[in-house]
Amino acid sequence: AWTGLEVAGPSAMRxxxxxGGVTVTRVxxxxxxxxxxxxxxxxxxxxxxxRLRNYLDWEAVKLDLHVADKVTVRYTRGGVEGTRTxxxxxxxxxxxxxxxxxxxxxxxxxxxxxxxxxxxxxxxxALIVRITEEVRLGTGLxxxxxILAINxxxxxxxxxxxxxxxAARTDQVFRIYFERAGQTIFIDLVFR
Length: 192
Prior knowledge:
Layout: E1 5-7, H1 16-19, E2 22-27, H2 32-35, E3 43-47, E4 50-51, H3 55-63, E5 70-77, E6 80-87, H4 92-95, E7 99-101, E8 105-109, H5 112-118, E9 126-131, H6 133-139, E10 146-150, E11 153-154, H7 158-166, E12 172-180, E13 183-191
Antiparallel strand pairs: 1-2, 2-3, 3-4, 3-5, 5-6, 7-8, 8-9, 9-10, 10-11, 10-12, 12-13
């Protein structure tokens, strides 16, 4: 289940006593928490009846969730306490349309929800959601990489990768730019 929000991690462990809960660091635009009215910088005090002292308490709440389960949170915003309820959703990458490229690579178009789910730096491109061992070894790409451009063509959707590679000539060199762990990298590949 996906809540569409992230909270401060281990670095904020010292702040919970002063704040009385865990700070929301990111809310996915259009995600479950955003639809429920939560915002970045809210401090979550309790979720589904469980006191939230640190990020591990929030993770424990998420582990108990299934898609469509209600999440009721007690929170503070600007010193004012409130309660919000929203339904957990499915992971955006699970529901996204998958495009198969060359039998060993499956990609989805990066959307704001997928960007938030995966913590991606780039808001566009095509996320690799499945890659065979053979293709991984042959290309150096891996699951979780986001293809940003092929040669000088910016990638704006997953289908574009399939189209670019299908139009390739034998022995044509491709420079593929991709995001991995927040960094932009490129590789040169020759398709035979």
